[in-house]
Design a protein that fits this description.
15 strands, about 425 residues, about 40% helix, seven-stranded mixed beta sheet, Aspartate Aminotransferase, domain 2, globular
Length: about 425
C-alpha cells in the first residue's frame, strides 16, 4: 500500500486516555457510544479543520481567479490526492467526491448501468448488502430491462466460492458486494471475488463503508473495479463520501448530475463534458467536507492502523464473548470474535430490538435497532430485525462492560423470570 500509516501513540498499543482526549464528545457525554457502524465520532483536529475553513477561508473553488479561490481549489485537490494515497488509487482523477457511499453507489448504478446493461443482462447482488448497494441496482435493472439476482450467504455470513462460481454466467455484467458486512462484521475476500468475476467478464462494485475506516484498503491489491466509502463513518462530519473507479470505466460512463463545473463547454446545441474527476462533481463542491476527510486520514495515520486493528480486535473479543455468555441472547453470524471486525448483531429471546435499544439508552448505552438497512438479509436469516453494537478504537473496556451489564438485565426488565 503506497500510503504509510505509522502511529505515534506508543510502541504497540494505544494510550486510550490520550486518544479519548482528542474527541470532545467524551468530555460532553457520559454515554457508551457503541453505534460506530452507523456513524463515528469526530476528533477535535477534524472539527477544527472544518471550523477554520468556514471561519477564515470560505470561497468557491475553481470559479475565481483571486488568491482565496485559487487557494481553496488547491486545498480541495490536495485532499483528493490524500484520498488517492490512502486507498492507493493509481491516480487522483479516479477519486470522485460525493455526499456519502449511498450517492456513490447510485452514481455507479445509474451511469454504469445505463452504459453497459441491456435487456436480459444480470446484476448479481450479495444478500448481505446494505440497501444502498441493492436498491440502485434494482432501479437500474428496471430502466434497462436487466435482472437482479441475489448471491446467498451461509448462516455465518460467508460466501462460498462454489456458490459464486455457480451464480456467474455469460449474462452477469456486475457483482455488487460489500467488503465488510454491517450485520455480520465479516470481511469478504474481494481479491478472490474480483478474480472470479473478471475471468467471467463481470465487473465488481465494492462497498467499503465498513472496512475503509478500520483497516488498510488498497484498491489495486483488491482488484475491484469500483470502491465506495463514507466520511462520516471514519471520523468526519456528514456530507462527504468517495467513489473510486478505474479510469477507463469512468471515462466511458455518462454524468450522473449535470450543472456547473462538470462541463468544458455548452452551446444551445452541444455539450462537451469536463474531464475526470469534474465530470462527476456537478455544482459547488463540499470543500469543507473534503478537507475534513483529508484531516481524518492524517489522524488515522498518526494513530496507526496496526494499533487500531489490534485495539478493535480486543474490544470485539470482549463484546462477542460477553454476548455468547449471556443466556437467551443469540449472536448473529460466526461464534469466532475474529470474524466480526467490530460489529456484533444479536437478538434477545422474547424482546423486540426497539425495546432492547430503549433499555440500553436508559442505561447510558447507544446501540442500533432494526434491520440496519439490510432487510432482505434479515428475511434470509429468518428474523425480522436485530440489535447491533459496534466499536471503534476509541471505545473502552468499561463501555463494553456497561453494555453487557445492561444486556443481562433486559429480560428481567421486560418481566421474564430467569
Amino acid at each position: 500500500m503506497e500510503q504509510q500509516f505509522e502511529g505515534v501513540r506508543g510502541a504497540d498499543t494505544l494510550d486510550i486516555a490520550s486518544v479519548r482526549e482528542d474527541f470532545p464528545f467524551f468530555a460532553a457525554q457520559d454515554t457508551a457510544y457503541l453505534d460506530n457502524s452507523a456513524t463515528s465520532l469526530c476528533p477535535e483536529c477534524v472539527i477544527r479543520t472544518v471550523s477554520e475553513h468556514y471561519l477564515r477561508e470560505k470561497a468557491s473553488p475553481f470559479r475565481g481567479l483571486y488568491p482565496l479561490s485559487v487557494q481553496i481549489t488547491e486545498a480541495y485537490e490536495a485532499a483528493r490526492e490524500t484520498v488517492r494515497g490512502f486507498i492507493n488509487a493509481p491516480e487522483a482523477a479516479e477519486v470522485i467526491f460525493t455526499r456519502n457511499a449511498s450517492e456513490s453507489l447510485n452514481l455507479i448504478a445509474y451511469s454504469l448501468g445505463s452504459h453497459i446493461l441491456r435487456p436480459g443482462d444480470e446484476v448479481l447482488v450479495g444478500i448481505t448488502e446494505h440497501h444502498s448497494n441493492m436498491l440502485p441496482w434494482r432501479m437500474a435493472a428496471e430502466r434497462t430491462g436487466a435482472k437482479v439476482r441475489y448471491l446467498l450467504c451461509e448462516p455465518d455470513g460467508t460466501y462460498r466460492e462454489e456458490t459464486l462460481r455457480e451464480a456467474l454466467n455469460g449474462r452477469t455484467k456486475i457483482l455488487a458486494i460489500t467488503h465488510c458486512s454491517n450485520v455480520f462484521g465479516r470481511v469478504n475476500d474481494l481479491r478472490r471475488f474480483a478474480e472470479l468475476c473478471h475471468a467471467n467478464g463481470t465487473l465488481i462494485v465494492a462497498d467499503g463503508a465498513q472496512s475503509v475506516p478500520h483497516m488498510p484498503v488498497d484498491v489495486q491489491e483488491l482488484g475491484v473495479d469500483f470502491l465506495v466509502f463514507s466520511g462520516h463513518k471514519m471520523l468526519t462530519p456528514m456530507g462527504i463520501g468517495v467513489l473510486w473507479g478505474r479510469r477507463a470505466l469512468l471515462e466511458e460512463m455518462p454524468p450522473f448530475l449535470t450543472g456547473g463545473e462538470m462541463i468544458d463547454a455548452v452551446t444551445t446545441d452541444e455539450i462537451w463534458w469536463a474531464p475526470l474527476p469534474q465530470k462527476f462533481e456537478a455544482g459547488t463542491v463540499n470543500t469543507g467536507g473534503a478537507l475534513a476527510l483529508a484531516e481524518a486520514i492524517r489522524y488515522l495515520g498518526r494513530v496507526g492502523f496496526d494499533r487500531i486493528q489490534k485495539r478493535e480486535a480486543d474490544l470485539t473479543r470482549m463484546l462477542v464473548e460477553g454476548i455468547l455468555d449471556t443466556p437467551h441472547v443469540r449472536l448473529i453470524g460466526s461464534q469466532d470474535p475474529a470474524e466480526h471486525h467490530g460489529i456484533a448483531a444479536f437478538t434477545v429471546e422474547g424482546v423486540h430490538p426497539h425495546d432492547i435499544s430503549a433499555i440500553m439508552s436508559d442505561g447510558g448505552v447507544c446501540i442500533r435497532a432494526g434491520h440496519h438497512c439490510a432487510q432482505p438479509l434479515h428475511q434470509h436469516l429468518g428474523i425480522p430485525s436485530s440489535s447491533r453494537a459496534s466499536v471503534m478504537f476509541y471505545n473502552t473496556e468499561e463501555e463494553i462492560g456497561r453494555f453487557l451489564t445492561v444486556l443481562r438485565s433486559i429480560r428481567g426488565a421486560m418481566g421474564y423470570a430467569e
